[in-house]
Automatic annotation (TrEMBL):
Belongs to the TOP6A family. PANTHER family: MEIOTIC RECOMBINATION PROTEIN SPO11. This is DNA topoisomerase (ATP-hydrolyzing). It comes from the Eukaryota. Pfam families: TOP6A-Spo11_Toprim, TP6A_N. The keyword DNA-binding applies. The active site is at Y123. Residues 95-159 form the Spo11/DNA topoisomerase VI subunit A N-terminal domain. GO terms for biological process: chiasma assembly; embryo sac development; meiotic DNA double-strand break formation; meiotic DNA double-strand break processing; pollen development; reciprocal meiotic recombination; seed development.
Length: 402
């Protein structure tokens, strides 16, 4: 790497690819302090200047797809191209100030030994500086700016994922608790014993809504997982997830069902990755709507995203596309097909221009745009409410996934 490129960033650990490190609070605080000292040093120099903030660029032209050497997992990565936040540029000044305010807030959170969600962060910043923070999106973008500046993960900053995810099926979780344990005997895993300070959750014996995935990645990392499942099925929609849970589909096909109720949050992706690492022989399948958004959601689970490109490799999984796909349209009545909306066509074009999609995925996307319509999973109910499980089971038995 060129020397000037190394100097263009506060922190550099990987000479080929950029990544965000998982760091203890003391090291994150130290990095924030270094940033402050560098700023003050330039401000009090003989030729005072307000230094720009060098951030790893989160743009398409600074991204790529990294293929695993010893696995089939590929992930989005960011290279070393740098963009800046500058107080001296009129259209950048507020973004510059936001970075410092979020860093200050993270520093206080870390000193207190707490965790905060991005939503909590937004309301606190809205109260403290409404002229700088008017939307959740501004906070989310600024948090990613801080990650790109300090090269540490969002969770290392004391920011906890707001998880929407749920899991159900043939898996037992051992959860370490700081208080006295609660114990429930499990039907299929009698050999699991509990010690004081542990809780057992049998994910096959809970309500249809599933087990809510915590946003605390530290808690998720400490889970002890047990399972006799052969498949993990990612479900795009909560309603479909609950239908399969109510039908106890996981007992028909030994599987674990997981959902993030739309675009995946970090916590759901983290748990999915943990399950796949613990049980590497499990096949991961995805059930999505046949539309550009469904494929975008699948791609996020499979590769990660450019927005979180510094962390994507930590959560990427080898996901196979189960359905809906173009071959399934023959069993869906024409009258339940829906027209693609302008924003969906825009999503499709963005995906088609990316480096992520393999040839067969590109072909599916092209067909969506060519036909100009989409199909939702619920369209299968034309054949009865019990048809969904039969459809999935048949495709799994026939290994009909790509």
């Amino acid at each position: 790497m060129e020397p000037d490129l190394l100097k263009s960033s506060l922190f550099h650990a990987d000479q080929r690819l950029c990544s965000a490190e998982i760091l203890p609070p003391s090291q994150v605080r130290a990095r924030i302090e270094v940033a402050v000292l560098n700023f003050l040093k330039n401000l009090t120099a003989s030729n005072p200047a307000i230094s720009d903030l060098p951030l790893i660029s989160r743009k398409y032209d600074n991204s790529g797809l990294r293929h695993g050497l010893l696995s089939d997992v590929s992930s989005v990565f960011l290279s070393h191209s740098v963009c800046t936040r500058s107080l001296m540029k009129a259209n950048d000044a507020k973004a510059f100030v936001r970075v410092w305010m979020v860093m200050a807030m993270c520093f206080r959170i870390l000193v207190q030994g707490k965790l905060a969600t991005q939503r909590e962060l937004f309301y606190k910043l809205l109260c403290d500086a409404p002229e700088y923070f008017r939307s959740q999106r501004q906070v989310n973008r600024t948090v990613q700016d801080v990650v790109a500046l300090l090269r540490c993960t969002r969770h290392s900053l004391g920011i906890m994922a707001s998880s929407r995810g749920a899991v159900i099926g043939r898996m037992v979780l051992e959860i370490l608790l700081p208080w006295e344990s609660t114990y429930r005997t499990t039907k299929d895993f009698e050999n699991i014993s509990t010690e004081p300070g542990e809780q057992i959750v049998d994910c096959s014996m809970i309500g249809h809504a599933g087990y809510a995935i915590t946003g605390d990645l530290c808690t998720l990392s400490k889970l002890v997982l047990h399972s006799d499942a052969r498949y993990i099925i990612i479900i795009e929609k909560d309603a479909i997830f609950q239908r399969l849970a109510e039908d106890h589909f996981f007992n028909q096909i030994p599987c674990i069902l997981i959902t993030s109720k739309g675009y995946p949050d970090i916590a759901t992706r983290f748990l999915l990755h943990r399950i796949s690492q613990t049980f590497p022989d499990m096949t991961i399948l995805a059930l999505m709507d046949w539309n550009p958004a469904g494929l975008a959601i699948l791609s996020t689970y499979k590769f990660g995203s450019i927005t979180t490109g510094l962390e994507s490799y930590r959560y990427a999984c080898n996901v196979k596309w189960l359905g809906l796909r173009a071959d399934d349209l023959q069993i869906i009545p024409q009258q339940v097909m829906m027209q693609l909306k302008p924003h969906e066509i825009k999503t499709a074009k963005s995906l088609m221009s990316s480096k992520l999609l393999q040839e067969r995925y590109q072909a599916e996307l092209s067909l969506m745009v060519e036909r100009g319509h989409r199909a939702e999973i619920e369209a299968l109910y034309c054949h009865g409410f019990d048809f969904l499980g039969k459809y999935i089971a048949k495709k799994i038995v026939q290994a009909d996934y790509i």
